[in-house]
Amino acid sequence: MTTEAQLEAQFADTIEAKDRIEPRDWMPEAYRKTLIRQVAQHAHSEIIGMQPEGNWITRAPSLRRKAILLAKVQDEAGHGLYLYSAAETLGASRNELTEKLIAGKQKYSSIFNYPTLSYTDVGTIGWLVDGAAICNQVPLCRTSFGPYGRAMIRVCKEESFHQRQGYELLMTMMRGTDEQREMVQESVNRFWWPALMMFGPPDDDSPNTAQSMEWGIKTHTNDELRQKFVDMSIPQAEALGVTFPDENLKWNEERGHYDFSTPDWDEFWSVVKGNGPCNDQRIAHRKRAWDEGAWVREAALAFAEQSAEAAAPAQTGSAPGQTGSSPATTTEETAK
Amino acid sequence: MTNEPNAPKVHVEHDEAGTTVDHDSHESAYSGLLVNDAHWAFGTDFEDPLAGVDTTVPEGVDPAALAAYCLMLGDDALVFSQRISEWCSNAPDLEEDIALANISLDLLGQARLLLARAAAADPSLVPELPASSPVPDEDRLAYFRDDMAFRNVRLAEVPNGDFAEAVAKILIYSTWRLAIFERLTDSRDSVLAAIAAKGVKEMSYHRDFSARWVLTLARGTEESRARLLTALSGLWPLWAELFETHPTEAVVAAAGIGVDPAAVEDEAGVILDQVFAAAGIDRPDRGALAGVRGKKGRDGLHTEALSRMLAEMQVVARAHPEGQW
């Protein structure tokens, strides 16, 4: 008989050795809960993240750009799928997580609560927002939970592709008219600070970081990642020919890093708490799509059941697009 | 391509157990962003969609007729793609969102090739812009024509309804267009034949996807069946227009480069009836939607919905006629 203490010791050894925890392995309940929360937030971010850029699909100014943008937003739906699947291995179904999202019980990345006010934002989001997301996500490729880490490897590959596409759009626009160059700078001015906030609150105000790092769910602190992002972005901006809206941005020889101003954390918390420019709009959009699709999902289930009955006892029926996710052992998720 | 020094580097190597992940290769998210390689981003590695293709118009064909015909097919694909793209982030579930985006992307790709073919065959069709404008021909056709210059059938432009309307419309469109493309693969215009050959594979998937959903909705629940019947009834008046022969289509069919849509009506009808039979539904009993003094989509006479749709689609491009994208 294996005791709880032995299981915990094995779990700790696996983490210590930087090996992966797999779905059938024993894991502490708090680890499972934390992971569900993080993976669900991540999945929700992909799905909500379809909206700001999706806002410009019907107005993309060339056929080539329309194709690139539509394919990108489609990729985000695909990322959502991988991540909801990873969450399912922890016992949380896609339906259940979606219901929590639209009930406001689970969060998504606050960056998507900012509006896209110009087509240029498609490029800026690719460059800065996807860039920041990659900085956050690359370390997650070796996060301790196997399905999450493997999903992130695929996500990161595609995200870096998107980032390059976004940067390429901005580069192209900078070669265009004066008006286009102004559009790029205007867009960068709007997204720079929200992008820096994507790394989360400062380390001394991030209560979950220590435990998450101990469990190998998180591998770098928020401030470390933010600094890295600033350092990497400056040569990019110079190559592009734009500036960032921060007069304190300068190289610090002693630290070997760029100094920069403190983000407006009041705005950050205000957006996180639901007062961002688009919080209500994003959730209402997702809720509308989900509610309006309910009869379709019901029809697919009913059709699959009929087909299964017709083919009884063999279970062969399957409707197109049927999700088939059954709420197995449901881990109640209350943390925010 | 992967052997080129500047080829995109994929910074991920791992086995399924995740044990041999090369940690360091994940570290720099930005590596390669400034590398000057033209090949990395999908869709950005070429400017001319017909690059390297011989666009000489075959003998015995009026280039203007060939171009007008390509414009018809291209506008169908472009306008329908635009409508389907409106589903993005609005579908009943993620799988359908992805599938609808695929269909929209396929049609967009067809449109781009067909409009480029139209422009190459008859450059006089292409709207004029300031001499310094870098806007390519296919984009000029897509973004700088008004609704009355569009030659698409009205089925492609009608506003979206619910998901039943979406799959019913895709089934009707793809059944019709696939029958045309299968014949068009024998076109004497090798460009059009190649575009059709590519399109056949794509449209087969669209037809399969939509037919399976029509079956599912017809046999799913009472509500899904009722919604499907409503959708089909609303779309049916647009069916007949698909098979009417426009004078341009008659000319290109006679020249062996195009297909007379009337020639595929029986075949398309039989296929649709097979789907309906499997679904246990009948063809709606609705008359054909009239034109205005006989003029319809192919003549540039559209529903009220098209100019509104184009106003949205064209707004950024028209604000920057000399812009680079």
Can you describe what's shown?
- The complex is a heterodimer of chains A (336) and B (325).
- With 336 residues, chain A is mainly α.
- Chain A has one domain (2-270): Up-down Bundle (Ferritin).
- Chain A has 13 helices and two strands; from the N terminus they run ααααααααααββααα.
- Chain A has helices at 4-16, 29-48, 50-54, 63-88, 94-102, 120-137, 146-174, 178-197, 209-214, 222-240, 265-275, 279-292, 294-310; strands spanning 250-252, 257-259.
- A two-stranded antiparallel sheet of chain A has the order 1-2.
- In chain A, a hairpin with a 4-residue loop joins strand 1 (250-252) and strand 2.
- In chain A, helix 6 (120-137) packs parallel to helix 8 (178-197).
- The two termini of chain A are 36 Å apart.
- Chain B is mostly helical.
- Chain B has a single domain, classed as Ferritin, CATH 1.20.1260.
- Chain B is built from nine helices and no strands.
- In chain B, helix 2 (94-121) crosses helix 3 and helix 4 runs antiparallel to helix 8 (265-279).
- Mean pLDDT of chain B is 89; it is low at 1-27 and 36-45.
- At the A-B interface, helix 3, helix 4, helix 6, helix 7 and helix 10 of A face helix 1, helix 2, helix 3, helix 5 and helix 6 of B.
- Chain A: One of its GO terms (biological process) is phenylacetate catabolic process.
- Chain A: Residues 305-336 are annotated as: Disordered.
- Chain A: Pfam families: PaaA_PaaC.
